[in-house]
Design goal:
- The protein is built from nine helices and seven strands.
- With 228 residues, it is α/β, with parallel strands linked by helices.
- Helix 1 crosses helix 6 and helix 6 packs parallel to helix 7.
Length: 228
């Protein structure tokens, strides 16, 4: 039992009620753990260089594709050594975006992985149950995490103004505080600008040193047997 609020979630001091900060932190931690489950894809890659080495023969037919992929891998290697700034990756399914994030999760102990469609679903459940405490804890958890890896922004078909606003709040706050963030999406830059205009403006802010990698891989690398 919480000694401060006796598990009520509230502390009353001189007639004024305020949320119990200890319970809020515990709830944020619990919800982040529930939502931070990296997939097993990419588990067979031992490192970024191993992934690049094995993918290279498959995509080397197009020089520009290979160069862009190599630049992305190097940027993530640098990010793993010193997490700072923002990196966004756009590419069709099968571009190994999630595999790269799984490797980054392993390389950065403080990183929190987030599959955005799961985050959207959890936000809607909190809305339907009118559980504002859960919704606030979810948002604050991802806002305050030292490093967040957002996977598949835009993969959910839900485009309501409410959910766009909730996601924008999370991204915008991390942007304003300069917190290290990596985002993948299957949307093009133009599609991002239409569906998530304020988030897109943050992802594409070159003046803040943010990096954007539009992968133009034509082949689904998940369906190709890569060399060991």
């Amino acid at each position: 039992m919480c000694e401060g609020c006796e598990d009520t979630g509230w502390i009353i001091t001189e007639g004024i009620a305020r949320r119990c900060s200890r319970c809020e932190r515990d709830l944020q931690k619990k919800l982040l753990q529930q939502l931070s489950n990296p997939p097993t894809s990419g588990a067979d890659f031992t490192s970024f260089n191993d992934l690049y080495r094995r993918a290279k023969p498959v995509i080397q037919g197009n020089g520009s594709e290979l160069v862009q992929f190599r630049l992305l891998v190097q940027a993530l290697i640098n990010f793993a050594k010193e997490p700072k700034g923002w990196i966004a990756v756009s590419g069709r399914p099968g571009s190994l975006k999630t595999s790269l994030l799984v490797l980054l999760t392993k390389a950065v102990p403080t990183a929190v992985y987030c599959y955005v469609p799961d985050l959207v679903s959890r936000m809607f459940r909190s809305l339907s149950s009118r559980d504002e405490t859960d919704l606030l804890a979810i948002k604050e958890g991802f806002v305050n995490a030292p490093v967040v890896l957002f996977d598949d922004l835009g993969a959910s078909s839900e485009t309501s103004e409410w959910i766009v606003g909730q996601l924008t709040h999370v991204f915008d706050t991390r942007y304003r505080y300069g917190l290290p963030t990596v985002t993948t999406t299957n949307l093009t830059a133009q599609q991002l600008d239409i569906r998530f205009p304020r988030i897109a403006s943050r992802l594409f802010d070159v003046n803040a040193g943010h990096l954007f990698f539009p992968l133009a891989l034509k082949q689904d690398l998940r369906s190709v047997e890569m060399p060991k």
